[in-house]
Amino acid sequence: MTTARRRGILALVTAIILLALGAGAAFAVGDALGIRTEPSAQMEPAAPVVPVVAEPVLPPSFTFDAPDTERVSVALEELTDAVAAASGTSGEAVLTVRIDPTLIATDDAYAIEGDTAALLIRAGDEDGVTRGIYDLSNQVRAAAPLTDLIGEHEASRLPLRMTDLGAVGVIPDPAEWESGDDYSHASKAFAAVMQPEPPYVDQTALAAAFEDFDGFLRHSLANGFNAVAFPGFVEYVTFDGAPDGPVYADGDDHRDKALALREAYAPFWDRADELGMKVFLRTDMLALTGPLEQHLTHEFGSLDTENPDLWSVYTAGLDELYDAVPALDGVLIRIGEAGPVYDVGGWDYYSALEVTSVDAVRTMLEAFTAQAEASDREVIFRTWSVGVGAVGDMHTNPASYEAVLGGIDSPALIVSTKYTLGDFYTWLPLNDTLEQGAQRRIVEFQSRREFENFGAFPNDLGPQYQWALQQLIAQNDQLEGVWVWTQDGGPWRAGPMSLYLKSGFWQLYELNTQLAASLAQNPEADVAGITAAWAREYFSEDPATVEAIVEAMTHSREAIAQGMYVPQFAAQRVFAIGLEPPPMMWIFEWDILTGDSAVLDVLYSIVRDSGSDGVGAAIGDGAEAVAAVEQMHGLVSQTDAATWRSSEMRAAFLDTLGYELDTLRLLEAYRAMILHQGQWHDTLSSDAHAQWDADRIAYEQRAAEHLAKYEGNLDYPAFNLTAAQLGVERAVRDEPMAWIARVLLVLALAWVVIGMLAARTRLVAKPGAAAARATWIASTRPWRARESTLGMLELDRWLLLIVPAGLLIATRAVQTSLLSWTHLAVIIGAWVVFALVLRLFVWERSPWPVIAAVGGVVMLRCIVTLFALSFTGPGGYWFAFWTDPLLRTVYISVAFALFVWVFVAAGWALSAQVRARRATGYVLAAVGAGLLVPAVVVGAIGLETALTLWNDEMGLLPWGLARILGITTYLEIPSVTPWAAAAFGGALLVVGLLLAVPWRRRRVPAGASRPEARGDAGTSAS
């Protein structure tokens, strides 16, 4: 077998191996992406109805005969206030309140006897009589007959009804809402109270906060709640009794601050206890201070959350706190979110995501529940979690829930879980993990729906809440309560400045708070009647006006579900990169209309596959949502203004509907645009492109109008359209980039064809033909690289470098739509370093053989990319990557094989000059340097910063990802990745250098020639 044939066979085998490796890489990429869908079981609430609203009934003027206790007195004050808020009174009545344990002694059960002139409330304890008084006050506010309550009332079905802290201690400072891009989750509650310097507490601000808290408690009690979650834990603990000695050294101000804050807030907790409200301290785990973290690390070697001794420090803190403040009822723990997004600047109190394993969770709960049992307290553990394995999805996976919590059956443990299978989104199934477990369970609801524009739109969740509770109660007899978020969830200052009981149109989402509390007391309650009562309390006593408002609210869910979601996408469970993205990915998150290819391309593909005309149906859903809001606006606007409690409330209702209408019209246009854009990339249809262009014009017009009308509006803030606009800018360039790619592709193919023909024709004598011939031969038969460059003219030699380099730069520029100079800098910078290092190694030898080999393969690699870009530009390139596994696999396989072949060809070409070992060393060292330098630059800049800049220019992942969660955090990319890459590059460089240096030569007999000398001489002759 000839040498040429052996080399040809070796090259063919190498190509096959590289293609196989490329296929392996492609399958690895596909597996990492893990993009798949499965049907999602939807909730099935009853259709909303409009009740017949009776004429309002005026309440009597009351006199009271009741026990002289604080709880009863506060409840009677609420009844008095309700009567005062009515449009008038009718007659007089005596209300008698009697506590008689011999009559009724079952939780908060009570009975009412009498008539319009004299009513008697009887119950076994204060829980019952105060509930009866609050029910009377709510009846007054609903302008309904008080006699409807006569009879016996069973105990509330769910005895624990907890609320968050609302907006207590939060100052509605417009300056903090003006920018609209503060995505911090910190409420900054009591920020005015806590001072960094002694005495650490501003007494004036504390007094104001206490009045705020007292008002919130009174309002929550009237709504039916009996527990409150109060933020903080380590802030109030000195840790003087830690098992291994005090945490804080003498003179450490953390201890003084803890004592000052505990003294400041103890009256708050005592007040809640006095009014019959349980208090649970709400904290993330691990909760830390600087000295506490140092103490734990010193004692246990690290923040080892699987070590029971670590948790003994925290339980000692709880012992200290409960001894000091008996009014506290327990602690509420979250392990799934932590970090800077929740921290308040200037205070050394923070949290860390450290409880991420099954053993860590179980160890933590065993410690906390043992402490709770010993102290007669309770521990509420939230299943909202992140982490590896079972802990990561115990919120949504029944098997993981059992793996984490199975066998932990402490009577002091309560497990809290969101009612949706994920976060608080529409279209998610009921969370079936709430149907299992031996633990006591409570259900989480959110009134001010963060993902549905922070409650700024009408959003009546009554039928859904009722269906969910009825299903869960039927399936799990351990269900005993709810936790309703009246204000909390998501960023506090990125949406409207609506603060519960304080500012903005908070009355709109108060409906969901009242519904959740009422349904917890009685899951069979009349949700339409509750909605009508809400409308009467806040807007009007007029039956026609109330009916119009209730009818408008019956359309609110349709508007949200169809307008803020793309139903064909939202109705599926989507999985990607090991996560389960939420059903509202085109708004990522809260108010950022996304423009990235990953989300929008996958969204389109799911919509396309949803039916015979999935795209048309999805666009039609947007129009139906707009029509629903138009109907809502018409119903409210036609009401008699004189029947409203105030003109301001009517204006607020109409303004919010106008805001919703404008927003959903904007989303309608954007939906049509992105779907037709995907359709163009998918089908290459010129009609789809024309539709996209028309949609783009409509969207840009509506976007301009939306921003002009609502930008800077604190009550109705404009959506953040930055990411969407970046997406539009990239999309506009797709067609021009496709044409540029086609031109470059033709030129590149012409260069290759000339090279192929010039090898066998006299075309080789033409200027440039010899260079084309050399690149073709050197790239496909690199062992002939040296001979292919012999006798070349100076022009041809320079064309060997200029043509591939120019094509590489042009291809990468087109691939980025001429928008990502970061991408170009990294890619071209790496190639330049590679080329310079190789040139230094070659030194006095001719560089043209390796230039021809590398340049020729680069040409082939660019041709593959240009072919992919030539259809519909970079947008089509990424569309295929995200949505077509077959094309992605073929492309990655070929592209990977050609990329590695660059270095194989370079080494093969060099081996004719310096033998295989040294040639391998040259290439490895050059590759190592080409990786090392960019990696060091990225590491110095910071991986998160670099990825954010790159992604902003490329638009592959959601723009909001970096602003809210962080790309590295969300994708779990270690921050040391660039340094690891640099270390690997450095290792390659060192290995390459060791291989590249001349080793001791064997003695050569006199007269024998040295192969290297022959190679060098031959090269010099060229």
TrEMBL record:
Transmembrane parts of this sequence: 739-759, 798-815, 821-841, 848-869, 889-910, 922-943, 979-997
Protein name, as recorded: Glycosyl hydrolase family 67
Keywords: Membrane, Transmembrane, Transmembrane helix
Source taxon at top rank: Bacteria
DNA-binding found in the keyword field: no
Coiled coil: none
Species annotation: Microbacterium trichothecenolyticum
Listed InterPro entries: GH
Keyword presence, Membrane: yes
